Amino acid sequence: MRATEILIPTMKELPSEAEIPSHQLLLKSGMIRRVAAGIYTYLPLGLRVIKKIEKIVREEMDKEGGQELLLPIIQPGDIWEESGRWEVYGEEMFKLNDRHDRGFCLGPTHEEIVTVLVRSEISSYKQMPLLLYQIQNKYRDEKRPRFGLMRSREFIMKDLYSFDQDIEGMEESYEKMYKAYSNIFRRCGLEYTVVDADSGAIGGAVSHEFMVLADTGEAEIVYCDECGYAANTEIAECSPSVVEYSGKFHKSEKDLVSTPGLKSIEEVSEYLEIPPQHMIKSLLYEADGELICVLIRGDRQINEIKLQNALDCVDLWLAPDEIIKRQNLIVGFVGPANLKGLRIIADREVSLMDFAVVGANKPDYHYIGVVPRRDFEINEEYDLRTIEEDEACPTCGSTLNKTRGIEVGQVFQLGTNYSEALNAVFTDENGKNQNIQMGCYGIGISRTMASAIEQNHDENGIIWPISIAPLHVVIIPVSSRDTEMMDIAENLYQELSEKGIEVMLDDRDESAGVKFKDADLIGYPFKIVIGKRTLKNKTVDVGNRKDSQEAAVELDKVCHYIGSLIDSEMGDLK
Length: 574
Ligand SMILES: [Zn+2]
Description:
This protein is of the alpha+beta class and 574 residues long.
């Protein structure tokens, strides 16, 4: 490949919307271009990286018995109606109508369409297990597409669906994919961790996320060095803690106290000199249209994902002030005592409190000395808070650490969620009809490319892991006008290419400085510099992008030298 023959439009001025390194460097190095918000074109070098990731993914899928197919991007709305997700998916779904006014969508995911395929083609247990996958564009109309390929509206995904006759079979398929995913991210040269995860809109019980560790990651992860526990803070289980009250007030009975105009936990806490861990926040939520009261300790945060899971509801909103007033309640002074007609849901720590401050449902008053369950009822109790750093590990009790990651893959055990909704049944060994046990497994291909950059870059540009680098090596003749240098470069280019090494010859009529800068920006793992010394004593400088080491190598040995560098770098990425 010659630099003069390939479109690599490197950029100097970056658009201000490019906030994170991967977005900036992909634009700067001429690998992607923005078409509209969250929609990008992959230019030749960028596409090479995508293809390399896809190749690794295909190899690992095939190794576990996956069969590749290609499902359509455009999907009919009626199968989504059938599964009950046409409305659930909400505004993230790109919907469109055809000329006959029939509803379609651009597939945000493919559970429905693949289940419909399987229900018409699979009828016997003998046809399973079945692992079907595709690499396909997906569409999600994100409210705020940002961070380049990290949160885009069109993205490339590998999705595999497993079909088994029983739960054991599904678990086996899950194990296979878990192993395949671990291999994929290792082979891509990425540092990753696997965490327990929330299955969100996809549904199902067991789920793990594969996270590439990076400071810019959107996901917060807690992990334990002792036992290896790791979880997304969205769902990490919290151990309830008990804090006994030992302040100036008596603990015997509840008492009405005046708190004029003081509505927030902070204000009331300061005024009464009672720390927030002895106060209860009473929040009113609308869950699928029902108004409920949710209680949590004053120093804690409600985790709405846990709340939504606990209530098993689709819509969950913090009730606006008008709704609160319509219940004859006073905004800022709502409390669980004398709260008639509302279901009271509490975080598990609430009932462990021995002295609490709550709103009195009376303007400018709070109760102090309240004891949950003695002074008010709790209808349901769950773990509803978000875990914090330095808390105890739910598995072994050691102290947890926090880090950030980018979710690049997720695996789910779906069970019969979809096969029941879409009536995908098979006949078992005893001739009985049963629902197919399913699993689904996704990898964001374009996001994996962006994550690799988040994890591997410096101030000069990208440092690709060799297994997914667009090319292995760049040859830089310091002057393209020097015919002797160009001849040497050309010969070396031929020799390396014949050996199967992916090589770029930077034959542009640019200064050596520009070529060096672009080589670092694009992130070729190795560069070979042909300069005056090459003419004088037949040596070239070989540079390593990763550790910036340079070595003078004899010209007739450089081909072998580069080959062994690549081999050792590939090491266990194979
Ligand atoms: Zn632990």
